[in-house]
């Protein structure tokens, strides 16, 4: 058996073919081709070896934008937010308490793809959840709703939301201090596949929607969680897995720990988490990297502000000189430091007593860099104890998404073998069997 794993992103469509034993047999990429993304998929497929099974994920069209509506920010809304961190979603809005008309307008302005409606423990207060369900039902917000609040109030909430696209699931906070993210996470994935991906104008027919089995960040998070389990099996005191994916518009940070410490707060953290930094990126968000680095008192080279401005103005810029390559690496280094610091604040710094056991750098800037020794040294200096025990690797062939797809499809041993192919940071970017990664020409 061989697997063709496809990742249809907003800018690039990437493909990897692996054997059942996890050997990488081919890698290719092509620019994503809206309004018919299947054209890019076909180009990538044609450049890859034949495979018996196809698995696909997608973040095209901006991925999954999620709003959370809860009861009390420190409990229900925070629980919903934590669920979203592990659901491959970008949280664009969080509200708590009784929704007023102005709150609904703010929610609409955030332009979510899905609303996660939570509130109350099972058998507890129903007033806020039912009020907010009625407000959403009467609003002009025409997006799917995942209902994951007080189970006792579910029938009445569903009645209020009659005529809306609603997926009801178990409460994310069934009891005080008990967070149950799994059902809501699965429901968010179902909504993305059933309602969202087909509505982004990415393809003219239903074939693309049938092809995609999950949102890309959710696949990557599954791979990160799998890698944490592999480390736990191999070591007595494994560190956490930390992945930083630096893109043109955002920097995503994923972390996973093999065990979860007893919660000190009302809402415990899930073992695998993702945060999205929408103002930190290599192109459209490049000025945000410089501005935040200055605010955080990081050393910023004099030339970087102008370089960031050029990248913001020309988002398709491809470095062609040593100076431009150096500018990209400086921006990437700062984006990693800033995004990891924010991620650690979001997860209360809880990566376990050893910090990160593995840091995986992902994104085109790292995938194509010939030498990352300077970046590695700078990251170890600026992130201090977090990386004290960490091995730094680079996802040179875009293997995290495929490993997550394989994990979710029930092929964990193949996924483990694929994850072991992640390159140490000092290894140059070569494809399978020493061949360069194939890039299919096209728009």
In total, the number of strands is: 17
Q: How far apart lie the N and C ends? A: 32 Å
Strand residue percentage: 15-25%
The first-level CATH class of the largest domain is given as Alpha Beta
How many helices? Answer: 15
- The amount of helix comes to 25-40%
- Gross morphology: globular
- The name CATH uses for the topology of the largest domain is Nucleotidyltransferase, domain 5
Poorly predicted spans: 260-267, 426-437
Describe the protein's architecture and organization.
The protein has 443 residues and is α/β, with parallel strands linked by helices. It has two domains: 65-197, Response regulator (Rossmann fold); 216-429, Nucleotidyltransferase, domain 5, CATH 3.30.420. Helices cover 38% and strands 20% of the residues. The chain is built from 15 helices and 17 strands. The protein has helices at residues 37-47, 73-85, 101-109, 127-138, 154-160, 182-196, 207-211, 216-234, 286-295, 304-313, 322-346, 364-367, 373-383, 400-408, 412-419, and strands at residues 2-8, 12-19, 24-31, 53-58, 65-70, 90-96, 114-117, 145-147, 166-168, 214-215, 240-246, 251-256, 272-277, 356-362, 391-394, 423-424, 438-439. It has a six-stranded mixed beta sheet with strand order 10-4-1-2-3-17, sandwiched between helices. A six-stranded mixed beta sheet has the order 13-12-11-14-15-16, sandwiched between helices. The chain is globular, with a radius of gyration of 22 Å. Mean pLDDT is 86; it is low at 260-267 and 426-437.
């Amino acid at each position: 058996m061989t697997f063709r794993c496809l990742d249809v992103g907003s800018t690039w469509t990437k493909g990897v073919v692996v054997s059942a034993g996890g050997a990488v047999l081919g890698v290719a990429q092509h620019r994503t081709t809206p309004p018919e993304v299947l054209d890019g998929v076909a180009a990538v497929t044609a450049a890859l070896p034949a495979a018996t099974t196809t698995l696909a994920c997608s973040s095209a069209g901006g991925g999954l934008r999620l709003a959370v509506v809860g009861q009390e920010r420190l409990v229900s809304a925070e629980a919903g937010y934590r669920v979203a961190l592990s659901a491959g979603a970008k949280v664009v809005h969080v509200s708590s308490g009784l929704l007023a008309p102005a709150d609904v307008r703010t929610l609409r302005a955030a332009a979510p793809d899905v609303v996660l409606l939570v509130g109350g423990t099972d058998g507890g207060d129903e007033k806020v959840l039912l009020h907010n369900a009625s407000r959403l039902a009467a609003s002009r917000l025409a997006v799917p709703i995942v209902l994951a609040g007080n189970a006792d109030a579910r029938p009445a909430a569903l009645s209020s939301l009659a005529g809306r696209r609603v997926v009801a699931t178990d409460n994310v906070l069934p009891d005080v201090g008990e967070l149950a993210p799994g059902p809501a996470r699965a429901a968010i994935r179902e909504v993305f596949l059933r309602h969202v991906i087909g509505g982004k104008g990415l393809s003219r027919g239903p074939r693309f929607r049938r092809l995609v089995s999950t949102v890309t960040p959710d696949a990557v998070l599954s791979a990160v969680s799998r890698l944490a389990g592999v480390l736990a099996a191999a070591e007595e005191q494994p560190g956490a897995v930390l992945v930083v994916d630096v893109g043109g518009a955002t920097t995503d940070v994923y972390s996973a720990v093999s065990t979860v410490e007893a919660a000190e707060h009302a809402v415990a953290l899930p073992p695998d988490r993702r945060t999205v930094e929408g103002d930190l990126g290599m192109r459209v968000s490049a000025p945000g990297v410089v501005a935040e680095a200055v605010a955080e008192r990081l050393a910023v080279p004099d030339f970087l502000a102008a370089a960031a401005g050029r990248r913001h103005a020309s988002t398709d810029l491809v470095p062609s000189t040593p100076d431009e390559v150096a500018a990209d690496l400086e921006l990437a280094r700062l984006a990693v430091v800033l995004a990891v610091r924010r991620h650690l604040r979001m997860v209360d710094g809880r990566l376990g007593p050893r910090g990160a056991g593995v840091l995986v750098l992902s994104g085109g800037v790292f995938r194509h860099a010939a030498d990352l020794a300077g970046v590695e040294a700078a990251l170890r200096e600026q992130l201090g104890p977090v990386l004290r025990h960490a091995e730094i690797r680079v996802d040179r062939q875009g293997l995290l998404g495929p490993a997550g797809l394989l994990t979710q499809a029930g092929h964990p041993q193949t996924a483990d073998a694929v994850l072991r192919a992640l390159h140490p940071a000092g290894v140059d970017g070569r494809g399978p069997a020493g061949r360069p990664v194939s890039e299919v020409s096209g728009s």
